[in-house]
Amino acid sequence: MAFHWQVDPQDLFVERYPQMVGTGLPAADVDATRAAITAMWADAPGGWVREWSELAERYGREGEHRRAALAYGWAKFPTLADPLKRTALTRQVDQYLLAATDFGIDFERITIESPHRGDRVEVPAHVLTPPGWSSTDPVLIASGGVDSWKMDLHDLFADLALRTGLRVLAFDIPGTGETTVPLSHDAGYGIVRTLVDRARGLGGGRVAHLGISMGGYYSARAGLAAEVDAAIVLGGPVERSFDADRTWAYGMRGIVGNAMGFDAEPTDAELAQRMSAFSLRKWLDRDWNAPMLVLNGADDVHIPQADTLVFEGRRDTEVHLLPGTGHCAITKLPEATRLMVDWLTGTAHW
User: Fold this and answer.
1) Is residue 271 part of a domain?
2) What is the pLDDT of residues 51-62, one digit of tens each?
3) Are residues 261 and 130 in the same domain?
4) 175, CA 20 to 30 Å: which among 112, 255, 291, 348?
């Protein structure tokens, strides 16, 4: 189930340009692609998928497989709403695997089988193991959100593995990427719980959970329920983001609607009804949790400050609202990464 919706592709560049150039694509190539794109869904010159895929194909011919994977990542962005987007994801996987020999870190692609609503679902995941890691050490499970997925965030996850010494298990949250079941608060969290259990067997038993954007919803829930040994929430929605009167920016209504499995653009009322069940208030009301680090940019247009500040004063919890940056502190990612590394390596009690 998927649908197209009205979105100006140039609006996506306004928000995501820092992420595009900050994750490894040359600004000149991004600028040229931006100038060429005139339509979001057209399978023709000027179409989003067509122009990004042509850039990716060029990188592939030149042997720049990591850049090719990044460009295909933008081709399938922001959601798998049609066959063109799904083809771009398949090609991203191909280029990513070709790039793996140059990752500078041990890499393995695995499939984890999880129960889901009386059936079984296969979740492809990536294991990044730094030099010197021991089988008695903890494992960090990590995911992005509804539109930036495990391959798009590879460099961040590999950097965290190398700087903390932790093995990283990277995955796509439900409703996104290679995790094909719809986004949900209940069955979706069941898949995350399966990944936590698998991660315990991939190391010494202790597991930390990093969730970025909508992935932060799942890491917040895991941390508040103390189902992991430590949790990091970067730009995650937890309560106020699910209010019925929230507003949507930069095409996010269509992105979330696709992730939830709607087959046509939902109305505000339909989306609000589905999202109301996501609120973590009942977990926030409990006075215990795993050690947690919660951070975001102060100028986030998607996640209200209250969803970060609500963690202030909780036991074993550190909170940072970074000024001068927006969703997931993307323009200050080095600072946010340093905070995460310092916390993971300095939190002896987990």
Assistant:
1) yes
2) 999 999 999 999
3) yes
4) 291
The span from the CA of 236 to the CA of 184, in Å, is: 15
What pLDDT score does 350 carry?
66
Query: Residue 80: which residues within 8 A CB-CB, separation 6 or more?
Result: 2, 86, 89, 177, 258
How big is the chain, counted in residues? 350
Strand partners for 121? 114
Q: In which domain, by residue range, is 32 found?
A: 9-99
CATH of the domain at 17: 1.20.1440
The mean of the pLDDT values for the chain is 96
Q: Could you tell me the sign of the dihedral formed by the alpha carbons of 321, 302, 289, 172, in that order?
A: negative
**CA 34/CA 55 separation, integer angstroms:** 11
Cβ 133 vs Cβ 167: under 8 Å: yes
- Report if residue 49 sits inside a domain: yes
Take residue 243 and report the two structure tokens written for it.
Answer: 């209010």
d(CA 267, CA 98): 42
Concatenating the DSSP letter of every residue in 158-205 gives HHHHHHH--EEEEEPPTTBTTB-SPP-SSHHHHHHHHHHHHHHHTSSS
Tokens of 117: 């609503």
User: How does pLDDT run across 273-317, given as a tens digit for each residue?
Assistant: 999 999 999 999 999 999 999 999 999 999 999 999 999 999 999
Among 224, 208, 217, CA closest to 175? 217
Q: Are the C-beta atoms of residues 208 and 179 closer than 8 Å to each other?
A: no
One domain for residues 197 and 74: no
- Phi, psi angle pair for 73, to nearest 5°: -60, -40
Angle, helices 27-36/48-61, rounded to nearest 10 degrees: 140
What sections of 212-267 are H helices per DSSP? 214-224, 252-259
- Are 181 and 87 in the same domain? no
- Give me Rg for the CA atoms of the chain: 19
Tell me: do 118 and 187 sit in the same domain: yes
pTM above 0.70, yes or no: yes
